[in-house]
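Morning F.,

Quick status update on the modeling queue. The single chain you submitted on Monday has been processed. Sequence for confirmation:
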Amino acid sequence: MKRLRGKIITKINNRIIITVLLILIQIAFMVSGVYIFADYSRGISAALAVLSFLMSLYIIRRDDSSSYKMIWLLVMGAFPILGGLMYIFMGNKRPAKKLREKIDRQIKEEAVWLGKDSDIISHMDKRSGLLSAYISKYGGYPVCENTEAEYFPCGEEMFEVMLSELEKAERFIFMEYFIIGYGEMWSAVLKILEKKAKNGVDVRIIYDDMGCMGLLPSDYPAHLAKKGIKVIPFNRFVPVVSAVMNHRDHRKILDIDGNTAFTGGINISDEYINKEERFGYWKDTALMIKGDGVMNFTVMFAQMWNALSPDKIDCEKCRPTYMPNSRMKGFFQPYSDSPLDNEQLGENVYIDILNQAEDYVYIFTPYLVIDDRMIAALGLAAKRGVDVRIVTPGIPDKKPIFRVTRSYYQVLIEEGVRIYEYTPGFLHAKSYVSDDKRAVVGSINMDFRSLYLHFECGVFMSSNDEDKPLPAVMALKEDCLRVFEQSKEIMPDESRWFSRSLIDAILRALGPLI
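Structure tokens below.
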């Protein structure tokens, strides 16, 4: 076993080294080539400057985030010879045309397996119903009843239940994760997957190739295929300078027999269950749902799988067979956000929760790289008297992004938002809870990549019954209150020091690209 692990680590390291070297060579060749030709000919230099000017006009005209526009306009101004070409190669936020067409086609084909929610929406309170109608119309995923949920405040608690549920699988296991890494967590999961595959259970895995580049060798799908497990690495990483590599599958989905689904911030790697300490205590959250709402996740996975593989999933055979014992008086809406369109669904759901809030909105996010729309929504809610609190990590995993995160503290605190840093370690959770009525748990960070570039997912939960709110919503609220006590609140005087340096200003400007 140790010998095999050593060979795998060697393969991973070789892949990383070769990839980094190829990209650096391309960048050096591109930059030097452009400036050599520009120096050689004034005509070429003028043409490249005109291209940058035209790209600047194109950027201004595009319906994009103002932050994203700003950084590219700064690039054009700083590098008038190179800027236009940089935008052509790296500035497009939409996935490659071929990938878009494949996924778009499957989204339309598999949509027939999703239920209709017009009757359910009519039973919801008006504001939550309007948000669910928006998610259904622009995201494609209906709101469901006959669903129950359990909230997990940490990876360790979720993991034990996950293993137990995996052991119950009889028909299929679908897994879609940004990260799968060697260790105790993956070994325990893989042991069950192997056993289930041998017993005829349909086991399929999608993992993000870039997310796993430093964790899995490039031939890992073939290794798992020998065990009867079907695997697709999403958007295979090619060491070519291109915006195509911007678009990653950041979703976290485990779907068991169409009856049970897990989602949240937790990937399959030891730090997520604190078997390995990297940045202090790793604080994350997850949600398990059972019942009708799981079909949304089943179709979500099938859309992605069927777009990437000829071995199609038949959703007719994946319908849920489990009915909750007691019908909860609540509504559950698993949904996906995609960079295939110009609809910022994930961000809009968050903003609408802020706009609806009357008493409080409590937020967990590991990264805070937000645009003017989100800043305005957070600030307006706080100015209306809503108790808006955001918790970010106390120990960061990526120091440059942590500095960008801190650069937003001052403006938000001045607007009345309360900011906390989780002192025990790294907070990786992504969740909103508001007024004991509404909540979202999923994979969607409050940063540019999650909100604009990645495939993401979450579950919107809502309830009409003020006297009997959903247990999962209240469990999330109680978790927030515990975390506030463990965290340090950032005071106004302290926040002013987090964005005073030139480096912080540069990182803040580069925020949409990192």
